[in-house]
Amino acid sequence: MAESLSKITAIFETAKELTMEAAASARTATLTLGEDGVFRQRDVQRYLNSRHEKEKLLGMKAIATLMSRGQDVTEYFPDVVKNSAAQTLEVRKLVYIYLLRYAQQESDLALLSINAIQKSLGDQNPQIRAMAIKVLSGIKVPSIAPIVLLSIRKAIVDMSSIVRRAAAVAIGKAYELDKSNLETLVGYLATLLADKSFYVVGSAVQTFVNICPDRLDMLHTNYRRYCGMLADVDEWGQVCVLDMLTRYVRVYVPKGKMVKRSKDAFYSDDENDKEVEEAQEDFTIDPDLELLLAAAKPLLQSRNSAVVLAVVNLFDALVPEADLSFLGPPLVRLLSGPSEIQYVVLTNIAVLAIHHNGLFAPYLKYFYVVPSDTPEIAKLKIEAMTLSCSESTVSEVLSELQYYATSVDKFLVAEAVRAIGRCAQISNDIARRCLRWLLKQIHSPDHVLVGESLTVIRYIIQLSPKDHIKTVAKLAAALDNATVPLARASIIWLVGEFAGIARYIAPDVLRKCAKGFADEDVSTKMQIVLLAAKLYSYYVEEKPAPEDQQERDEQLEPTVKPPADPMDLLFEYVMLLARYDTSYDLRDRARLYNSVLSSQSSAPIAKLLLQAPKPSPHAPSPSQGKENFLIGSSGLVCSRINDTRPLPPWSTETPDASIRDDSRVEEAPVLPPMRKKVRPKARKGTKEVKRKKVVVDKIKQEKPKKTRKAENDYHTTLDEFFGEPATTSTPPVDEIDQDSEHEEESESEVEIVVEVSDDSDEAESEESSEGDGEIDDEEGEDDDEEEDEEEEEEEDEEDEEDEDEDEEEDEIASLEESQSEETEDEVDGAAGRGLLSGR
Amino acid sequence: MSILAVYITDINGQQLFEYPLSDSPPTNKMLQVALRDASADDIVLRVSSDELLFHRRQDSLDFLIPCSSSMPALVPLEFISHLIKVLHDYFQPPLSRPKIEKNYSTIMMLLNEMIEDGYPFVTEENALRDLVPFTDGLSKYLPTLPKGAASSLKSITSSGLSSKSFSSDSSSMRSNVPWRRSNVKHNNNELYVDIQETLSVIIPAVSPMRQLLNSVNGTSNPVPTASAFYTPAVPQVLAEPIVAIAHGSVFATTKLSGVPDIQLILSFGNRVLEGPAFHPCVRLARWRERPGTLSFVPPDGKCCLLQYTISGVESGPIGGDLKTGLGPMKDEFEVRVWSRVPRNVKFVENLRVEVVFDSERVQNVKGTRASSGEFNIEQKGVGVWRFPGKTPMGWNASLRGTMVVSEDLEAGPDGTVPQEFPKYIKISYDCQGMLVSGTKVESLRVVSGKGLDDRAKPYKGVKYLTHGKDIIIRG
Predict the structure, then answer these.
(1) What residue in A sits closest to B362 (Cα-Cα)?
(2) CB environment B254-286: b (16+ within 10 A), e (fewer)
(3) Omega of the bond leading into B94 within 30 degrees of 0 (cis)
């Protein structure tokens, strides 16, 4: 009776509220908050403090608008915090977002909301639990660090993967909040890293990268499992997992070696890679590495370009010696994306092409520049094209580059001519061909083309000056027709540079130039003066007698082929012309050369000054020097930044592969009957394994206890912590609390280090199995079965060479089960897909 | 490794939206300074030695994402793509300033789900729809509204409802198919497949030598003095394209109730797909067993199932060429375009030919005579020849004209200024009903559908579209 009465009153209550609601909405229809874009503080506060959910929502939306506009809304803090227990999820979410951003500034007030959030931790809906843990860990108030730890501990054994995933993220935030808790948090993280759900693993690895990237040893037992579930992890998680596994392999898996005898293809995928077999030297790799490579390869088909580059990095970092030709198509395909992604991909392609010359050879056509390409992209395309071309494709590339070099776009012209210079390095034949074409361009009206051509000509000549005396002669001849001052200046400089080798040409060039000196451009005049000085310095050097002017005239010997007399005259004539030039710079230079060359005493200086051998111009590909950056990293794309995470070097001594064994022994509950089988195995394993196991077991062992405790007196404890909700936080109590936490933690830490004795092992395993059984019965059973078979297999064959067989059997075993996760077959299709087809 | 903030600004750099993720991220002002200092093409900007800025412009809005420098470069860029996709899903493209300003709270809640601890978290549109309700008042009246979103709306309106009821039924589904929204209900069950191909072609200039040879052989091009309006049948001799690449995307738009399982079989002829990329929903094992088979449980709404690239395709339904040095003074050029003999298409749309010349050397284009369409110089160095509406197949048109060379140019060595001609022409168009690669849908069927009424036969539709984007014919 009383029940029905209360029901009726409840109904009335709801009806009343609904009416009020309707009235309120009618009111808001006429008077919407912030309609004109202005929010008066009083109005907003009134809405926030309203009894009606709808008005609260409007109030919170006003706050959201102000926040998004970048206005300071800390003044609303008390009004907002009141709504942290609002009924409507949307209001609550907005309150949480507000708290996440401003709690730090009003930490005392923020504490008021903690209680409400904590209540949500026990909500039935996993999403609300996940949200609560997210907010709790995100509120940057140091004094709640112990509560965060407590709730994470509870969340990592939550039944819902959504909550466990949220816990994985929360661990990272809790670390930021209080770095002293690292050890505890790493312990929690170890549990999540071993989680069965791929949904959780992605985020756990992300947190791992953020808080303890060097603890790669935590991954031993997870390594093979991750390889199996890689395809199912979400795309952002894949980026992290791939990166981390790359690092792991560098440290703990032996490097692949070239072996003479040929075996099978180094790994076989159902796809079309058979070409490896024909190599005489075969590339053999560790089976664990092979497992990873096989798992990573299908990810090249990801729609997410970040994943593709992470896979490419993995192959480039781990098996650079292998045939990587399959990396070409996915990278080339990304060039159809938005220009930002094209740019980043091309930068990476250019770097890859430096090391793997042939990688992109079949895809040259994808690098042809189209008019819609931005200059940056065009530049990278030209570079990629140049780097990928070989002797067989060079003519195709050259004709394309020549087209760009004569195009309208100045930027393209310069870049293309430089690229032609780089092509010339391939062989002497090609160099000659390039040179022939470049010499033709000197007469072009396009200044950029001429200038760049001459630079490249100079470069090619300087590579082997002796072979190119004829070219210098041709250049000198071209001077008669060249009209562009820049071109003339460059040619004269070049002739002067090679005056020592091409003896017969330079004086004649000087003679011709001196004739038309007055009409030349200033830049050309300077080069003429320089040429005169250079020639004269050679002349002075070879002149036998260090006498004065008249004597020199008499003593002229045929050591210098052109008659010495004209040389003197020519030099003086040019100096005279320069002395009366309008350009003071030119006059100064002339005076300098004149004084340096006039006396024998300064001859060495003159020689140094004028005959110094110029270093051969270095013409590296623009991307050269970026090889140290990882493929896909930001450092590759943007210069001058701190790239803090270089790959670890290959370790020379890798531990035995057995450290990666028996992942399931820990992961799944171990049933008493199986102990006998497991124990000999454990004894065989290294000490590291033992210790590792203990870590996980300990945590598992603790969990149920903690959870129970948390469930019992969770809220009361917290109320004790903070006393009255209105009062500020009470530091002494906090400290005590923290201390107690630490005591517990340190206790567990001590336990971790303790050596493994057999009986303790047993006790733990029992306990842990109990704990796990509670958490997920259904899955636990499945795993037990799997476990069973697993164990038997493992006992039979302990050599790693039989790994493949092991996997196959594994496959068969898991096929029988509906919810298998380790199946090789399902690697590519997400487990979700597998489940679907199952249902 | 973290995203520091998300800013949305208009193209003038005025901030519309901010979502800081760290204590003191670089402010929009700092970023704008970095943007101004950089050249327009810098994709990744350095803000400081530890901070980078990734940015992208979309629908007249700029998305700025400052990140810490250890972030892999493509993660923020891909994240921006996802963010734009999600915003399009919620607010319909194109995005605009008022749309952003009206929906601050929704965008904020979306970002709250999309980024966790400075790293992308939930970015699937369907998953987000379960997490963040439409607050747009219109959505109440949408018949296809999923139950999850509806219940959250209900929870807004009826305050008596406890939060427990909020999409508690949706959580179980999500873990299995993370990309599909839970409890989808549609009154009309529909399934559409759209295949789009973007075609890029480069046709090199026919070398004079080759032209000569052709004329000798008699299979030649028309005589140079032919009238502008004399348009012979489709020319026989054309340079082979040096590049002919089709980038294809297969989109599925599904409006099916429950959890449908769909099989789509495509045939690509004998062509090789270069590095295909798949939506996570596609079962790769099936594809590997039998290439061309896409088997999937689709997300609700539109998604891109497959992206592929095929090289060496045909040069498309529209051809063109560029001839120079015609006319009595040898100073005329002629551009011709034609549509090929129809296969199964009736027309192309939005045909447009750009005639590109050196704006520094050419003052004007005079005496243009076009057999159809309109030719105008629309920007520096580019004349655009448009054919509005539909252009039928088996059609052709030509354009003649002379480039007027700038007077202030210096003379060449022989004392005369060389005559200028167009550098290249660029053709673009849309063609419905065909794909240049010859890709076809062989079959499309709903294999099974949990929650889909057996009697309800979904309406199925397939559409092809070839988008000629960069068809370059060099002069």
Answers:
(1) A408
(2) bbbbbbbbbbbebebeebebbbbbbbbbbbbbb
(3) yes
Q: Are A169 and A135 in contact (CB under 8 A)?
A: no
What is the DSSP secondary structure assignment for residue A829, as one 8-state letter?
Answer: S
SS3 B310: strand
Q: Find which of A299, A637, A645 to mutate to test the B interface (most B CBs within 10 Å of its CB).
A: A637
**Is the separation of the CB atoms in A295 and A827 below 8 Å?**
yes
Q: Sort out which chain A residues have CB atoms less than 8 A from B178's CB and list them.
A: 199, 234, 832
pLDDT band at B315 (very low <50, low <70, confident <90, very high): confident
The answer to whether B416 faces chain A, any CB pair under 8 Å, is no
- Find which of A14, A53, A90, A442 to mutate to test the B interface (most B CBs within 10 Å of its CB): A90
Nearest CA among A763, A687, A779, A750 for reference residue A220: A687
Percent pLDDT > 90 in chain A is: 4
Whether the CB-CB separation of A392 and A425 falls below 8 Å is answered with no
Q: pLDDT tier at A737 (50, 70, 90 boundaries)? A: very low
Side chain identity at A657, as an amino acid letter? Answer: A
For residue B409, list chain A residues with Cβ-Cβ distance below 8 A.
445
Q: How far apart, in whole angstroms, are the C-alpha atoms of residue A472 and residue A478?
A: 10
> Around Cβ A399, how many Cβ atoms within 10 Å?
12
> What ipTM describes this predicted complex?
0.86
Q: Tens digits of per-residue pLDDT, A134-146?
A: 888 888 888 888 8
With CA atoms as reference, report the closest residue to A403 among A358, A449, A372, A442. Answer: A449
Label the pairing between strands B119-120 and B115-116.
antiparallel
3-state secondary structure of A304: coil
> Is the Cβ–Cβ distance between A90 and B152 less than 8 Å?
yes
Instruction: Chain B: give the shortest CA distance to residue A656, in Å.
Output: 32
A63 and A94 Cβ atoms separated by less than 8 Å: yes
The rounded distance, in Å, linking the Cα atoms of A416 and A395 is 14
Instruction: Tell me the C-alpha distance between A57 and A28, whole Å.
Output: 12
| pLDDT tens track for B203-255 | 888 765 555 555 444 443 444 434 444 444 444 456 788 889 999 999 999 88
CA distance A619 to A425: 10
Q: Is the dihedral of CA A369, A372, A373, A378 positive or negative?
A: positive
Count Cβ neighbours within 10 Å for each residue of A85-102 and write b for 16 or more, e otherwise.
Answer: bbbbbbbbbbbbbbbbbb
Q: Does B447 touch chain A (CB under 8 A)?
A: no
Give the model confidence (pLDDT) of A781-824 as tens digits: 444 444 444 444 444 444 444 444 444 444 444 444 444 344 34
| Beta strands per DSSP E along B393-458 | 396-405, 424-432, 440-450
Comparing A373-387, B178-192, B239-253, B262-276, the range with the smallest average pLDDT is B178-192
Contact A665, A634 (CB under 8 A): no
CA distance B335 to A352: 41
**Separation of alpha carbons A193 and A168, rounded Å:** 9
Q: How far is CA B83 from CA A400, B15, B106, B114, B306, in A?
A: 38, 17, 13, 8, 20
Check CB contact under 8 Å for B46 and A638: yes
How wide is the angle at C-alpha B292 spanned by C-alphas B289 and B297, nearest 5°?
Answer: 85
Tell me: pLDDT of B156 over 90: no
Tokens at residue A271, please? 């796809």
Q: Please say whether the beta carbons of B238 and B272 come within 8 A.
A: no
DSSP A302: B
For A541: left if phi > 0, alpha if psi spans -120 to 50, otherwise beta; the answer is alpha
